[in-house]
Specification:
Layout lengths: L21 H18 L4 H10 L3 H11 L6 H32 L4 H7 L4 H10 L9 H19 L8 H24 L11 H25 L4 H21 L7 H16 L8 H28 L1 H7 L4 H33 L1
Helix pairs in contact: 1-2, 1-3, 1-12, 2-10, 3-9, 3-11, 4-7, 4-12, 7-9, 8-9, 9-11, 10-11, 12-14
């Protein structure tokens, strides 16, 4: 996982893509800003529109992770699972660090706050069952991804002594997607119910998308040959999916993902697979964008909360009319700067330990 998704530099055996998929790295970087705008929204209908369009990001991250786990050994899967746990702990610690700084600047007690962090039994159960982490809500994706990796590790480990057959995993993904599609996509569009957060977890949301990414990797050549390998056709499907999603948002309402997003993400995934290189991107730049997208995801919400505690009021005084529209852009800029700093520190630490 390089950003919210497993790294796109994993070697694969297909001749369709190079060692690093530059298009995926660029798309992950762009998608990370949409994630920022979900949590730091624009005001009014613009905020709702951007939120609707941003719903492609998390499904894409799940699919990319599944894609790059094709033919992975149980040891590789377990190593990636540990990496995701490290990312989760890093994000959680940064969130609490920012919270403690805010408390101290307001004259509060950090010790009293830390005591309240001891989770109750219901919070632990929500974490284990629904992947809703206490105090760090935006990191639910990493918890859901850990569920995907754990289930996939068990599946691969069971077949360690023979050639891995993914059919059972695909069947599981299809079954879980049927439940998700019925209870989230269809139910939300019909207005029958709004399950929302109860469907936004690794079981019903993550595993089907993870499995679909795995499926696309295994059968990408057949899929592109049977359907299309034309970039403009895939772009048309993406645009139509976006328009359908916006129409649903404007009229019926949406759940975790709008109906059109399903087609949008599928087309985007095929576009990234069939056109892996970006002419204006260098290998090093693509790698950096993928890493920055990870840090953007981990850091943006704590920074947004700090901004709200100390800077929103004077910011709105300075920009009384445009402040609400500028704030998400400011948060995105601050988060990008922080991401660059953390990535630089990460590289320095890795380089230092390698020398040791």
């Amino acid at each position: 996982m390089s950003a919210i998704a497993v790294s796109a530099d994993t070697p694969v055996k297909s001749s369709v893509i190079p060692k690093r998929n530059q298009t995926m790295e660029l798309c992950k970087f762009i998608a990370s800003f949409f994630v920022v705008f979900i949590h730091a929204p624009f005001p009014g209908r613009l905020g709702g529109l951007v939120d609707c369009l941003a719903r492609f990001a998390v499904p894409m991250f799940f699919m990319i992770s599944g894609y790059f786990n094709y033919q992975a050994t149980s040891r590789q899967v377990l190593r990636r699972l540990k990496h995701i746990l490290t990312l989760f702990l890093t994000g959680a610690l940064f969130r609490q660090f920012c919270t403690c700084v805010s408390i101290e600047l307001k004259g509060g007690s950090t010790i009293a706050h830390l005591i309240t962090l001891i989770p109750e039994s219901d919070e632990l159960l929500r974490l284990l069952i629904l992947q809703i982490p206490p105090y760090t809500g935006h990191l639910w994706y990493l918890c859901a991804m850990m569920v995907c990796y754990l289930v996939f590790w068990l599946f691969v480990r069971f077949q360690e002594e023979c050639r891995t057959n993914y059919l059972g995993f695909y069947v599981l993904g299809c079954a879980l997607f049927s439940i998700f599609f019925t209870l989230d996509v269809i139910a939300s569009a019909s207005g029958a119910m709004e399950l929302g957060i109860h469907m936004r977890n690794g079981w019903f949301f993550g595993l089907p998308l993870f499995a679909s990414g795995l499926f696309i990797h295994q059968y990408q050549e057949q899929i592109l040959r049977i359907f299309t390998s034309s970039a403009w056709k895939l772009v048309v499907v993406m645009v139509l999916g976006m328009l359908l999603s916006v129409l649903q948002w404007d009229s019926l309402g949406i759940g975790t993902v709008p109906f059109g997003t399903i087609f949008e993400v599928a087309a985007l995934m095929l576009l990234m697979v069939s056109h892996p290189q970006v002419p204006f991107l260098r290998e090093k730049t693509a790698r950096t964008l993928g890493a920055l997208s990870m840090w953007l995801y981990l850091l943006h919400l704590p920074l947004y909360l700090v901004f709200g505690d100390f800077f929103r009021e004077p910011f709105l005084i300075i920009f009384p009319k445009a402040g609400g529209y500028l704030e998400p852009l400011v948060i995105a800029t601050i988060s990008l700067i922080a991401a660059g700093i953390f990535e630089g520190l990460s590289r320095f630490i890795k380089k230092h330990f390698r020398r040791k």
